[in-house]
Amino acid sequence: MKSIAERVNSMKEIPPLPDSVNAVIKAIRDPKVSARDITGMIANDVAISSKILKVVNSAYYGFKGNISSITHAIVILGFNVLKSLVMSFSVYGLIEGLDSKGPFSLRDFWYHSVGVACASKVLSGMLGFKNGEEFFTQGLLHDAGKLALYRLEPELFLHIVSRAKREDRSFFEVEREEVDIPHPDIAGMLFEAWQMPDNIVESAALHHDIDVIENKRHVAIVMLADALVRGMGIGSAGDDNVVVHGQQLIDFLLQDRDLEEVNVMIRQEIERAEAFMRLID
Ligand SMILES: [Fe+2]
Ligand SMILES: [Fe+2]
Question: Global pTM?
Answer without folding.
Answer: 0.94
